[in-house]
Amino acid sequence: MATYIQKLGIVLKNYTDGLGHLVFTNVCLHCNKELVAQERYLCWICWEGLERTYFELQKDPSILDKLFWNRVEIKHTCALYVYGKGKVSQSLIRALKYDFKAPLGIFLGEHMAQQLLHHPMSKVEAVLPVPIHPKKKFARGYNQSELLARGLSKEWGVPVLKGLVHKRKHTNSQTTNDRFGRWDNVQNMFAASSQIRNFSHVLIVDDVITTGATLESLARAIKAANPKVQISLLSFAFTK
Ligand SMILES: [Zn+2]
């Protein structure tokens, strides 16, 4: 009997120790190294490993600007980091999308705002997160672009526009489709409210830009509701 209780004790201890590890240990989202007190989400080596695009410092149009040429008129575009397989940016976005890390989204939004504090896009009237379908929001617990927008809003002192644009239907993940295949699916993805007429310059916020098709569709829906509005785009990362 004593042996049984001892065994049970060991099992319980292992279980709670494991749980403690899960709840309290703070590890780098990219390399899994344990973080020290000053580090948040990434160790400093991985923060350094984030590959900056520096699009905002380019005098000539960036490849991100050119992505929207002949598609929809965009005032300013920027994406801070290069996105790609195995990159630190991918670990951050993965954690944001699939690991229920809502505070990370606000933290990254604040970080983006600080990086672009003197950029003209910080003077927009409002930030507009890319809407996701309510089903997806329910499954994830939040809209990751909205969290980024909240971080930007906090730093720049501009409002987050919610509910002015909605997503029309649920679409499956289309990350493997090519630009043209994807376009068919997203052409009429969004509808914008006439309240968008109250604004003359808004900033669309997204986590990652790949083909730009979703953003193009969103920008078109906003322009359909207010042809005079200027639209800028900001994303945490960009797939080159
Ligand atoms: Zn690390």
Structure report:
There is one protein chain. Strand 5, helix 9 (213-225) and strand 6 (230-239) form a beta-alpha-beta unit. Helix 5 packs across helix 7. With 240 residues, the chain is of the alpha/beta class. It has two domains: 1-49, no CATH class; 50-239, Rossmann fold (3-Layer(aba) Sandwich), CATH 3.40.50. It starts with a helix and ends with a strand. It has helices at residues 2-24, 44-49, 63-67, 88-98, 102-115, 134-140, 144-156, 179-186, 213-225; strands spanning 77-83, 126-129, 165-167, 190-192, 201-209, 230-239. It has a four-stranded parallel sheet. The protein has a two-stranded antiparallel sheet with strand order 3-4. Bound molecules: zinc ion.
Share of helical residues: 40-55%
For this structure, what is the CATH class of the largest domain? Alpha Beta
Domain unit count? 2
Order of helices and strands: HHHEHHEHHEHEEHE
Mean pLDDT: 87
The distinct ligands, each listed once, are:
zinc ion
What is the third-level CATH name, the topology of the largest domain?
A: Rossmann fold
Shape: globular
Q: What is the straight-line distance between the termini? A: 64 Å
Q: Using DSSP, what is the number of strands?
A: 6
CATH second-level architecture of the largest domain: 3-Layer(aba) Sandwich
Number of helices: 9
Major sheet characteristics: 4 strands, parallel
* Radius of gyration computed on alpha carbons: 21 Å
The strands making up the biggest β-sheet line up spatially as: 1-6-5-2
Unreliable stretches covering 5 or more consecutive residues: 14-23, 173-178, 180-184
